[in-house]
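Box 3.1 — From sequence to structure: ABC transporter ATPase
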Amino acid sequence: MARVWIYQADRFLTESEANEIKELAEHFVSSWTAHGSALAGKVAVLDNLFLILEVDEEVADVTGCSIDKSVHFIKALGEKFSIDFFDRMRVSYINADGQLQLASREQFQQLVKEGVVTSDTIVYNNLIQNTEELESNWKIPFSQSWHSKVF
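Predicted structure (token representation):
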């Protein structure tokens, strides 16, 4: 099982931004180390919104220093592309038309109040921490998410 970090952009990326970010992230991951040991990392840019880093800790454990390196890298990407990958005030969800949407907390709360977001609306749980959760708990109904307790 791999450790996972999901970074959600504060806006949708253009195709060219997504491609360039993926290329830069692949280069970073290929040289990512923990105390001199190469990390078995992977990267994905999904839906022009999510940057996902994975590390197989059965190969080498992630350390505080290696996590710091990844955070600095993500912050540098954000500066280069004018994107905030650390904005936790935005909620991603699938609307009734099946389209991925991004809303501020205020907008999302209004959508819940208006009944646009229902208990069955799929929301993204970016707090997951491993590949098992990525496969089973990343995209879940609003009623089963931490969002339902907040909104």
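Summary of the box: Residues 64-81 form the longest helix (18 residues).
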